[in-house]
Amino acid sequence: MLQNPDCAVLGVGEIAARAGLTPTWFSSAFKSCFGESPREFRRRRFDEMAGGPDGPPGSP
């Protein structure tokens, strides 16, 4: 859901609630597993999909 553009209107707290988790627990667990917050992950993925400043992975 975090990287799905159709779900961009949902905040991280809403996504956590839909999974039955508190926003704090979800964010902490996500960062522990992936090394970045859900918000950072979402921002980076949307930038990559849009060809943002760093472009898609593997681009020159």
TrEMBL record:
<keyword id="KW-0805">Transcription regulation</keyword>
<dbReference type="GO" id="GO:0003700">
    <property type="term" value="F:DNA-binding transcription factor activity"/>
</dbReference>
<feature type="domain" description="HTH araC/xylS-type">
    <location>
        <begin position="1"/>
        <end position="44"/>
    </location>
</feature>
<dbReference type="GO" id="GO:0043565">
    <property type="term" value="F:sequence-specific DNA binding"/>
</dbReference>
<protein>
    <recommendedName>
        <fullName>HTH araC/xylS-type domain-containing protein</fullName>
    </recommendedName>
</protein>
<keyword id="KW-0804">Transcription</keyword>
<dbReference type="InterPro" id="IPR009057">
    <property type="entry name" value="Homeodomain-like_sf"/>
</dbReference>
<dbReference type="InterPro" id="IPR018060">
    <property type="entry name" value="HTH_AraC"/>
</dbReference>
